[in-house]
Design goal:
Structural class: mainly alpha
Radius of gyration: 16 Å
Number of domains: 1
Number of helices: 6
Order of helices and strands: HHHHHH
Number of strands: 0
Helix content: over 70%
Keywords: Membrane, Transmembrane, Transmembrane helix
Shape: globular
Length: 137
């Protein structure tokens, strides 16, 4: 399982960082490789330290289920943890703002929220795809 998760981490990181960077290239006209470098520098540690354990936890929690039940619960867990990422980071780095003016906090961090949801969906999709068509034995 751990090899599959590492491959998923690698592929999901490349996909999500590239697509999120492409968004900024299109909307802001920023140079692609500069944006990829900056986003990758900040996102990669979070994907490794947060995304990988969450995906392993999701597998553990759904291992007794089969078919659509397992698939659905795994998706909900991935997206829920992607959703909660902003709040966890907010409480660690900006607890004053998240507690006093949540609207402003959310507005300031909307891009991070969307990116974390998008990345969690990428992570789930790639992981489930590898389960169906294994890249490793």
């Amino acid at each position: 399982m751990f090899k599959r998760k590492l491959i998923t981490l690698f592929l999901a990181s490349i996909l999500s960082i590239s697509l999120i960077s492409s968004y900024y290239v299109v909307t802001d006209g920023a140079p692609f490789f500069s944006v990829v470098s900056v986003i990758g520098l900040f996102a990669a540690p979070f994907l490794l330290l947060y995304g990988l354990p969450v995906s392993c936890l999701s597998d553990k929690l759904t291992e007794l289920l089969y078919g659509k039940s397992r698939l659905g619960l795994s998706f909900v867990l991935h997206v829920s943890f992607g959703f909660s990422f902003l709040f966890i980071v907010g409480f660690i780095f900006d607890s004053q703002s998240i507690l006093t003016d949540f609207g402003q906090f959310f507005t300031m961090n909307r891009d991070i929220f969307i990116a974390s949801i998008f990345t969690s969906v990428c992570f789930w999709t790639i992981d489930e795809g590898i389960k169906v068509c294994p890249l490793i034995e």
